[in-house]
Amino acid sequence: MTVISPSARWRFWVAMAAVFLLLLWLLNDILLPFVVGVVVAYFLDPVVVRLQRLGMSRTWATTSVTVLAVLIAVGVAMAILPPLFSQLQSLILSFPDYTVKLAARITPLIDPIRERLNLPPLSLHELQAELTQRAGQVLSVAGAVAGKLAQGGLAFFNLLALLFLTPVVTFYLLRDWERLVDAIDGALPRDNADTIRKLAHESNAAIAGYVRGQALVCISLGSIYAIGLSLVGLKFGLVIGLIAGAISFIPFVGTFVGAVMALGMALVQFPPDWIGVVKVAVVFLVGQMLEGNVLSPKLVGDRVGLHPVWIMFALLAGGALFGFVGVLIAVPVAAVVGVLVRHLISRYRDSQYYRGADAG
């Protein structure tokens, strides 16, 4: 039997990783429905397992969960997307006027600072003209992109695949999830299987604990902000609330961005009725209190977290390398890389490279 040296094994696994990344890059244009199917299946697997424990078969549990998830997704899309797109378009068109009104309100407050710094006066007419031009460019670019997507055969195929193929992929992955895990486990190199299983368990804990928990926190906060801002009568409250919730996985950033947008809109819309501005501030205050005292402790707890800077880097790197598919897998990959880095640091501290040749 031929003995393979450790260096040869490292070269083999590095070559396999390079081939995998190359295939991921080459097939990037058609991977979206499959990646979305994997993500959805991973999130829904605990529900299927719970139904199995209640006595349902794996197939029936998978069928029930998949059908229910599709119905919920369709219902939410039909309820939210039309008003969301309408508000977003109106916000882009109205953005120059609202910005000028806001600048007119805060100009008396910043004039003393501007004079001390010898800065030129702010021209509201020039600001409005510039912002109107930019808003028109944004709408033109959005229209051009939509037109190209409609004309592009591959993009149209991806859209159809996302709508019709993703539920099928999700169903089969959910049904065969345990078989896939067993097959992967059976293919592990035997002398490193225990270490790989340990790292896989820690990676799953990081993804399940942090990513699933943070996703639920973002959905909850987005719903709270969108509903709350809409109830207090803030224009574009649905869009602003959903934006704030969507980026709440970065601590304080989602709330800060959403609060700045909402309060800026409130300062334009409500004064001299300052009660409306107070109501908007209360919505974000309540959201922060719920996040800090209820949502994050219950949904995320003390599970393995990721540093916000590492999350932002992962999202930018994933998007730059693999587009929207890269954005989808960026945070889970970042969680796995974090586990591997901690393992390598632990191995390094136990080695002679760290302890020295004379260490016992």
TrEMBL record:
What biological process terms from GO does the record include? transmembrane transport
Q: What topology does the record note for this protein and the membrane?
A: Multi-pass membrane protein
What stretches pass through the bilayer? Answer: 12-44, 65-85, 155-174, 215-234, 240-267, 274-290, 310-341
Which controlled-vocabulary keywords does the entry list?
Membrane, Transmembrane, Transmembrane helix
Q: Which InterPro entries match?
A: AI-2E-like
The primary location reported for this protein is membrane
Q: Does the keyword Metal-binding apply?
A: no
Where is this chain's protein located in or outside the cell?
Membrane
GO cellular component term of the entry, any: membrane
Family designation: Belongs to the autoinducer-2 exporter (AI-2E) (TC 2.A.86) family.
Q: What is this protein called?
A: AI-2E family transporter
